[in-house]
Amino acid sequence: MTYCVGIKLNAGLVFLSDSRTNAGVDNISTFRKMIVYERAGDRCMVLLSAGNLSIAQSVREILQVEQLQERPDVEPLTIWNARSMFDAARVLGNAVRHVYDRDAKALEHAGVDFNVSLVFGGQIRGEGMRLFQVYSAGNFIEATLETPYFQIGESKYGKPVLDRVITPDTPLDEAAKCALVSMDSTMKSNLSVGPPLDLVVYEANRFETDKIVCIDMQNPYYRMLHSSWGQKLREVFDSLEDPVWDDAHTDVPLKVSGGRSKPLKKISRPDERLI
Amino acid sequence: MTYCVGIKLNAGLVFLSDSRTNAGVDNISTFRKMIVYERAGDRCMVLLSAGNLSIAQSVREILQVEQLQERPDVEPLTIWNARSMFDAARVLGNAVRHVYDRDAKALEHAGVDFNVSLVFGGQIRGEGMRLFQVYSAGNFIEATLETPYFQIGESKYGKPVLDRVITPDTPLDEAAKCALVSMDSTMKSNLSVGPPLDLVVYEANRFETDKIVCIDMQNPYYRMLHSSWGQKLREVFDSLEDPVWDDAHTDVPLKVSGGRSKPLKKISRPDERLI
């Protein structure tokens, strides 16, 4: 499995990926799932991948040479000459389709789904930052103000904290912290998501980044986050009142006299029915 | 979808279920997913169901008349005369198999999986409390000290808080609070899990319970929990330090000079490769 998240903010972009892969629980390996494509001053793009590793690696391999020939009189489109992130995402989608044409049939014979999902974001000089999620069919969607992040892989455990924290106005470092908390929750619940983690933070209109770090479990910041989050979550839980069944002695009774919803009927004899 | 959780503690049992069902997002209904079987002073058993609603309802219907004839000279086993929860769980598993025999083929023709999962727990006089999860094949597993709870339906969003809080020593009301927080996180992230909620708390060795409540979104305790949990979670998040990229000025640097793990290499030219 995999967990990757890409976040688009007004201040920049945040990308985080784990690096565990598994073919069954008895075959665990480490593969990095992030690539940074950067021509400083011109474009900075980050690709995150999840799904079948052979497909993801093939896509990454051919992405570098992938060309979209749109018209005979125009230079073919590549991620290095694309004038917009949208066009670069089209090149990426096309690379997925090439791998499909080459491998899907043989995978199907082997009973393996053609399954890959990608997050691709960045900025090309001349336009704003953009963030895309690319599907197995090579089609893609773009992040918007309302939904400023994309997750791929094991997304459920880490989603609640993103939903609570991330808005387009979130500062970059706070969003990086949020992505790491989201990853921490995921690693706690899904063994097939694991370290080291790759984190990239891109500041808007820089067209390059030096905020790239590989975080292992010895990383001081990650260790602090991991232990403090667990401990403080528990403190918050303890600080909430336990339910009180008798509504006479509390402002927030659990059982309300004459409540609006009907409590369950019990069944107390073999011949009794609910309805 | 559905979310149900059953928890076994030294002090008793806690059961919580939502009541939303859906056949696609355009067909949402309300069905209660919990039944309490109780012969006061002798046995108190609670059944939670998830999966295909027609299967779950059929299982509930025939469970009342289901008999396991083990030997011709012995009275057939039912949930009402079983002398252990294990035997009662066998009767339940058998009910699932009866529905399978009746419906599975026709469901398969219609392209529908035979999909049902059940949590079944309680206490019969003469033994301790027990909690089981019953699968579509009618087989089942029992909760232990190490894993004192079972979830069925949409389990992922609500699992982290259970893992952080629940141990066999957790007091009953605290466990009920934990189940409600778990449900709250699930309802926030999965539209197909919804109110009203049915909560039952069973105290050990009582062989009956009056702690049964139907909780809708107007319930004062649930409203308090919902708003306080969200707000305090956010406060905890804000209280954690943001990452600092420069390791000179912090005890917990994100980027460590000479860190153990290699940062990602960037790709900066079309002919460059990662490896």
Blueprint (SSEs and pairs):
The structure is a homodimer of 275-residue chains.
Chain A: E1 3-8, E2 12-17, E3 20-22, E4 28-30, E5 34-39, E6 43-51, H1 53-63, H2 85-109, E7 116-124, E8 130-134, E9 140-142, E10 149-153, H3 159-165, H4 172-189, E11 197-203, E12 211-215, H5 220-239, E13 266-267
Antiparallel strand pairs in A: 1-2, 1-10, 2-11, 3-4, 5-6, 6-7, 7-8, 8-9, 11-12
Helix pairs in contact in A: 1-2, 3-4, 4-5
Structure, described:
Two copies of one chain form a homodimer. Chain A has 275 residues and is an alpha+beta fold. The first copy, chain A, contains five helices and 13 strands. Chain A has a five-stranded antiparallel beta sheet with strand order 10-1-2-11-12, with helices on one face. In chain A, strands 5-6-7-8-9 form a five-stranded antiparallel beta sheet, with helices on one face. A two-stranded antiparallel sheet of chain A has the order 3-4. In chain A, a hairpin with a 5-residue loop joins β3 and β4 (28-30). In chain A, α1 (53-63) packs across α2, α3 (159-165) runs antiparallel to α4 (172-189) and α4 packs across α5 (220-239). At the A-B interface, β5, α3, α4, β11 and β12 of A face β5, α3, α4, β11 and β12 of B. β13 (266-267) of chain A pairs parallel with β5 (34-39) of chain B.
